[in-house]
């Protein structure tokens, strides 16, 4: 018996003793049958009766006060499924490329990275990228804060280009994501300045005077493809955006530089500079350094697909405990159940979530699935 159940049990026993005294005073003839009118030790059979009743009522009150009761879990899991799940570890990783050896851009889709070994068992955590990332033959070695002759603040971005790229017109630079790598005050100020407070862009190519660049920065993190974790079929995406913002604000600290696809690049270009003239001067109390803008970054989450241990169904049971296959290290938890397939000697059968509303009947009389499953979170 755990501590919580014992507290409920003792509370019920106290109630029975106190209520028993009041009942004995109000109805002494009936209380005598249960030996409630006499102080001291009660009849042992009556005591066992009270203990059994207190245990049952304590378990019932514990279930009613549970964090995830069955009465509300079904509704919450249907409308806001992510509220019932533990939020996995989140981070932003930067991919370092050897741009000197790259001849073209490469796009990485649905890739995973491993953390450094942690803990006594040297566990390496698996992180999955939340969106695709395109690696260009570019590097951003220097970002600095400069000033125009008239005193306006300028953010200068110096890019280095890969020398092996023969035709830069084949490189898609229409959307170049940048991560605002700074503390929250600096990152928020940078985000506001780059998305709402830009007065002009200048482009400087090697051996040429700078010229006006028709470009702009757009905020990232609000598209459907930018979700940190999968969205429920019936969940409202706005709630997920709010939850992502308050749990991992760094996801929204990305901006995309748009407009470089219209530039005519010279052959074998080694680098270029972009001057971003701000409409308002950069605050003097906020630091600015080269690491504040980073290239080739992507959010990652500690979620990865994994099979569970096989279950042997029994007609005498209606709930089964799921455990991740081959991993019993105490660090792995099941976040969601995506697919269930049963197999027999006659073939296999796929299960669908009960909340998907693809029930047999009406227009789905012949096409609806025959088997469903429902998952619920239970305190371990």
Automatic annotation (TrEMBL):
Pfam families: T6SS_TssF (PF05947). It comes from the Bacteria. This is Type VI secretion system baseplate subunit TssF. It comes from Escherichia coli. The gene is tssF.
């Amino acid at each position: 018996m755990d501590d919580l159940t014992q507290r409920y049990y003792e509370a019920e026993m106290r109630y029975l003793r106190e209520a028993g005294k009041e009942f004995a005073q109000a109805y002494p003839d009936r209380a005598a049958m249960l030996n409630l009118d006499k102080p001291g030790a009660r009849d042992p059979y009556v005591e066992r009766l009270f203990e059994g009743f207190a245990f049952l009522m304590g378990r019932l009150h514990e279930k009613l006060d549970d964090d995830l009761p069955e009465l509300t879990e079904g509704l919450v899991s249907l409308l806001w499924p992510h509220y019932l799940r533990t939020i996995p570890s989140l981070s932003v990783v930067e991919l370092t490329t050897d741009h000197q050896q790259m001849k073209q851009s490469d796009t990485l889709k649905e890739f995973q990275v491993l953390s450094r070994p942690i803990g006594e068992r040297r566990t390496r955590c698996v992180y999955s990228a939340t969106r695709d990332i395109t690696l260009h033959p570019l590097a951003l070695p220097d970002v600095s804060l400069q000033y125009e002759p008239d005193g306006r603040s300028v953010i200068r971005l110096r890019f280095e280009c890969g020398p092996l790229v023969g035709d830069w017109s084949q490189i898609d630079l229409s959307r170049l994501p940048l991560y605002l790598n700074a503390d929250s005050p600096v990152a928020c100020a940078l985000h506001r300045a780059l998305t709402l407070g830009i007065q002009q862009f200048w482009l400087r190519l090697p051996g040429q005077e700078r010229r006006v660049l028709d470009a702009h920065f757009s905020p990232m993190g609000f598209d459907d493809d930018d979700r940190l974790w999968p969205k429920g079929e019936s969940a409202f995406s706005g709630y997920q955006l709010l939850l992502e913002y308050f749990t991992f604000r760094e996801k929204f600290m990305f901006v995309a530089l748009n407009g470089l696809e219209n530039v005519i690049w010279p052959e074998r270009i080694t680098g270029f500079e972009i001057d971003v003239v701000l409409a308002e001067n950069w605050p003097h109390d906020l630091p600015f350094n080269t690491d504040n803008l980073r290239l080739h970054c992507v959010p990652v989450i500690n979620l990865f697909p994994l099979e569970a241990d096989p279950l042997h169904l029994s007609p005498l049971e209606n709930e089964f405990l799921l455990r991740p296959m081959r991993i019993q290290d105490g660090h792995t938890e099941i976040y969601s159940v995506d697919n269930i397939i049963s197999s027999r000697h006659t073939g296999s059968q796929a299960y669908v979530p009960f909340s998907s509303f693809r029930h047999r009947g009406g227009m789905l009389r012949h096409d609806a699935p025959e088997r469903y499953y429902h998952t619920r979170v239970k305190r371990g």
